[in-house]
């Protein structure tokens, strides 16, 4: 799990900024700060106006409904007035909710811009919020720490609660009047249930509309649901999803900056870890069944995890020890990852950020660890070796697995015999160097099997 910039297992170069004319940046910062102040003022004024308008509309709707129905009884059906007012209040509430969500987005984006410019100008209040909170713009050191949806009980949600409470009361009263005017025995006999159901549906619709309007760049309702499930089963999922996706994407830029070719690495990654990668949407049900059968020794031992699931495990899951619960969360989040990122991006992020060995996150640290240098164009044998090391936290030489997978690669024309000869030397050198531990003294057998 990647925690922050200071994690020793997760380092890459960040963009640096230099201004020959700092006045330009200072002017941009001034404009951004004024825009933020203006957006906050608009938000506050709109909240006050909405409160007055909602209360007035509700009072008029409830007090005049019966009089209007009696007046227009000869022209319109008795249920038309409460129904029309109910629709009008609903439409007003939904439009207002979307408006406030849009204003909140403008405020957050302006806040993030201010923090970004502050960092570009070299000003930082530090990571530890001893004086200023680092999750608010006053002390934020990282733009994405300012959430698009700060919470249900923050200032951003006040307009939502105002509209929800007032519109729910109006909905309750208008529903009662509507039932009174409708001559249906089924509805009349279950009037209380009908009113409660109507209000419940309305609260659900309004809540969903507000929350879905404040989804961040990579957020979806599936992600929110999975976070709720994770909290329920006591398997926490990282809260700073946007930041982690940003950091993982930045790692791919570092790999590109070092001019490392990913062609062979991607080819071997898909072959070794997830051969159906391009066919499934994040979850391979065949792999799940195979992994389940392996528990009963009916199939060769297999984890059943796709590349999507492995990447989710590395980036977003905080507790890896709870295996069964972790697998459930991985399966729930895999389609989300497949939706927010393209297949090629997932492969590049995997290679650039996943754990290749204990304390080696990403292929560049792994190359430095195993080969003492960054190899810009790894051979198929080197790529096989690196991918086989993924998540091998015990640094063990798994000879049987290596031999079986390597021979399968030859049968599928992914590797040649010359590649196997090179691979045998790589493993032999790694064991001699001590970067791989041969617990069972099986290196001789591995070299013999691969070179014959």
TrEMBL record:
Transmembrane segments: 42-61, 81-100, 157-179, 191-210
Every Glycosyl transferase family domain range: 264-393
Organism of origin: Marinomonas foliarum
Associated pathway: Cell wall biogenesis; peptidoglycan biosynthesis
Coiled-coil regions listed in the entry: none
Keywords: Membrane, Transferase, Transmembrane, Transmembrane helix
Highest taxon of source: Bacteria
The protein's name in its UniProt record: Transglycosylase domain-containing protein
Protein's UniProt keywords contain Zinc: no
PANTHER family from the UniProt entry: BINDING PROTEIN TRANSPEPTIDASE, PUTATIVE-RELATED, PEPTIDOGLYCAN GLYCOSYLTRANSFERASE
InterPro entries: Glyco_trans_51, Glycosyltr_51/Transpeptidase, Lysozyme-like_dom_sf, PBP_transglycosylase
């Amino acid at each position: 799990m990647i925690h922050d910039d200071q994690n020793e297992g997760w380092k890459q170069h960040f963009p640096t900024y230099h201004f020959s004319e700092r006045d330009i940046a200072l002017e941009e910062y001034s404009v951004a700060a004024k825009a933020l102040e203006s957006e906050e003022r608009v938000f506050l004024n709109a909240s006050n106006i909405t409160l007055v308008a909602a209360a007035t509309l509700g009072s008029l709707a409830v007090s005049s409904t019966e009089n209007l129905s009696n007046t227009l009884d000869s022209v319109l059906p008795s249920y038309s007035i409460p129904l029309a007012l109910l629709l009008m209040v609903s439409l007003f509430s939904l439009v207002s909710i979307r408006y406030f969500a849009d204003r909140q987005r403008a405020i957050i984006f302006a806040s993030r811009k201010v923090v970004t410019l502050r960092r570009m100008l070299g000003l930082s209040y530090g990571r530890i919020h001893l004086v200023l909170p680092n999750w608010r713009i006053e002390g934020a050191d990282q733009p994405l720490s300012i959430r698009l949806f700060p919470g249900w009980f923050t200032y951003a949600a006040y307009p939502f609660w105002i509209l929800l409470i007032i519109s729910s009361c109006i909905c309750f009263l208008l529903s009662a009047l509507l039932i009174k005017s409708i001559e249906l025995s089924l509805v009349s006999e279950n009037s209380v249930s009908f009113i409660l159901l109507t209000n419940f549906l309305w609260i659900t619709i309004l809540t969903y509309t507000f929350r879905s309007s404040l989804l961040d760049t990579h957020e979806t309702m599936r992600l929110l649901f999975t976070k709720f499930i994770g909290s329920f089963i006591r398997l926490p999922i990282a809260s700073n999803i946007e930041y982690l996706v940003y950091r993982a994407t930045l790692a791919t830029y570092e790999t590109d900056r070092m001019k490392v070719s990913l062609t062979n690495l991607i080819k071997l990654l898909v072959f070794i870890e997830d051969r159906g990668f391009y066919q499934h949407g994040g979850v391979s049900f065949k792999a799940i069944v195979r992994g389940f059968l392996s528990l009963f020794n009916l199939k060769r031992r297999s984890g059943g995890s796709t590349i999507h699931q492995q990447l989710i495990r590395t980036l977003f899951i905080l507790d890896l020890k709870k295996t069964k619960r972790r697998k459930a969360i991985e399966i729930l989040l895999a389609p989300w990852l497949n939706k927010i990122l393209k297949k090629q991006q997932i492969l590049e992020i995997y290679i650039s950020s996943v754990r290749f060995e204990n304390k080696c996150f990403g292929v560049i640290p792994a190359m430095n660890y195993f080969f003492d240098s960054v190899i810009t164009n790894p051979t198929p044998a080197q790529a096989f070796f690196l991918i086989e090391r993924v998540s091998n936290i015990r640094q063990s030489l798994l000879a049987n697995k290596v031999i079986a997978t390597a021979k399968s690669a030859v049968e599928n024309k992914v590797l040649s015999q010359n590649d196997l000869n090179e691979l045998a030397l790589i493993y032999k050198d790694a064991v001699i160097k001590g970067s791989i531990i041969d617990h069972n003294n099986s290196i001789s057998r591995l070299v013999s099997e691969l070179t014959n």
